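Treating backbone geometry as a discrete language has practical consequences that deserve illustration. Part of our work consisted of pairing the sequence of a single chain with a tokenised description of its backbone. We regard such an encoding as a compact summary of how the chain folds. The amino acid sequence and the backbone structure tokens for this protein are reproduced below.
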Amino acid sequence: MRNSTELAGLLEPTVDGMGYELLHIEFGHQGRDRILRIYIDAPGGIQVDDCAQVSRQLSAVLDVEDPLSAAYLLEVSSPGLDRPLVKPSHFRQFVGNQAKIVTSIHILGRRRFTGKMIEAGEDAVVLHVDGESYDLPYKDIESARLAPVY
């Protein structure tokens, strides 16, 4: 596999078939271990048992397909309060909430934005930050998460 989009294409049918939504895939490190982290969601939320069931099924798919060349640990997780925002539908679902967004390019002199999502269209999200509104095209977003206010 070259990227998370291809991996999502491999894993999504299994996750969908189990009644969950595949939200996001991350590759990372935890100490010396490589981690393949899969975020799932469902209308009623996610419990530990849900993660365990999905993990068992995805482990079987990954063992058969063997899409990754390096060793890794599989972690299936709920999105949590700081859930990742990946698809335009995710942004639309949480309009009115705070978000933390990092863009791949500078937009009006900055790449990091934390503010209230005031609109989410087909091509961009509008974020209100420090009294100003920024149109952030989805194609330029490197990462986005909800930023819960405690």
Observations:
- Strands lie at 21-30, 33-41, 73-77, 98-107, 110-120, 124-129, 132-137, 141-146.
- The radius of gyration is 17 Å.
- The longest helix spans residues 48-65.
